[in-house]
Design a protein that fits this description.
Blueprint lengths: L4 E12 L6 E12 L3 E5 L6 H8 L7 E6 L2 E2 L5 H11 E5 L10 H11 L4 H14 L15 H12 L6 E5 L7 H16 L3 E5 L3 H4 L4 E6 L2 E5 L6 H8 L3
Parallel strand pairs: 3-8, 3-9, 6-7, 7-8
Antiparallel strand pairs: 1-2, 1-4, 4-5, 9-10
This protein binds adenosine-5'-triphosphate.
């Protein structure tokens, strides 16, 4: 394994069911996500994108191969250890702005840290820092319904990356947003990766995938292309201006 691999999929397969009705959701997927890297996953509906993200996040278990997060093979962990890895190492951002409505932005972001035993005041400080990093520090005391969709999605990114977490798994995080707001959210995700986080981004939109360092394509559960191409210069230029 490369030392800076944050996520590694080794010949991963996932079969649902068995016998003649078995569905091969994923076959023989090998992929390494390094520190600072953003990888976009594209592919038609049913090609296995969500399954890939679920396996990467330890929400589902492969039927073949291995998933390693920060060098740890998830299959070697007990349920409690797996839950701890999920809390400490990775965060999810979903399409549907899944913040808890009864909590303020800061409380939403602090929650995973408090669940991990960090004292409320320290968690709150970390949450404020995380919100500031994604450009919504002044909205800490607002409730989700007092924020725009783009602002809520920034809060979700802050929550995904609070504390020691360095891996964001984003499933169509711009799906519920208008196109300009969607771009803004990707710019924030790109900037957080440039600052040392790592992201796996499922998207249907090539224009959003252009923010990634690499784009991988799934078809019928198999990786059909992994170009390894560098992002175009304008992406680097744009991302450099964001902090
Ligand atoms: N729990 C399950 N039981 C049986 N089949 C499943 C299950 N979950 C997913 N599948 C199948 O696995 C394949 C991959 O599904 P997946 O949801 O990963 O695709 P996707 O690329 O994310 O699709 P979409 O873009 O529509 O969300 C599909 O054929 C799907 O029907």
């Amino acid at each position: 394994m490369t030392s800076d691999a944050v996520l590694e999929l080794r010949a991963v397969g996932r079969v649902h069911g068995d016998g003649p009705t078995a569905v091969h959701a994923l076959r023989d997927i090998s992929l390494t996500l390094r520190s600072g890297e953003l990888i976009a996953v594209m592919g038609p509906s049913g090609s296995g994108k969500s399954t890939l993200l679920h396996l990467a996040g330890g929400l589902d278990t492969p039927t073949d191969g291995a998933v390693l997060v920060e060098g740890t093979d998830l299959s070697t962990l007990s349920r409690a250890e797996l839950a701890a890895v999920r809390r400490r190492s990775l965060g999810y951002v979903f399409q549907d702005l899944n913040l808890i409505p009864a909590l303020t932005a800061a409380e939403n972001v602090a929650l995973p840290r408090e669940l991990d035993g960090v004292r409320a005041r320290a968690a709150r400080r970390e949450a404020q820092d995380a919100l500031t990093e994604v450009g919504v520090g002044e909205l800490a005391d607002r409730f989700p319904d007092e924020m725009s969709g783009g602002q809520q999605q920034r809060v979700a990114i802050a929550r995904a990356l609070i504390g020691p977490r360095r891996l964001v798994l984003a499933d169509e995080p711009t799906g519920a947003l208008d196109s300009q707001t969607g771009e803004d959210v990707l710019r924030v995700l790109r900037a957080r990766c440039d600052a040392g986080a790592s992201g796996l981004l499922v998207t249907h939109e090539a224009r959003h995938a252009a923010w990634a360092d690499r784009v991988v394509f799934l078809r019928d559960g198999a990786l059909v292309d992994d170009t390894g191409a560098a992002p175009p210069p304008e992406v680097l230029l744009t991302a450099d201006g964001v902090g």
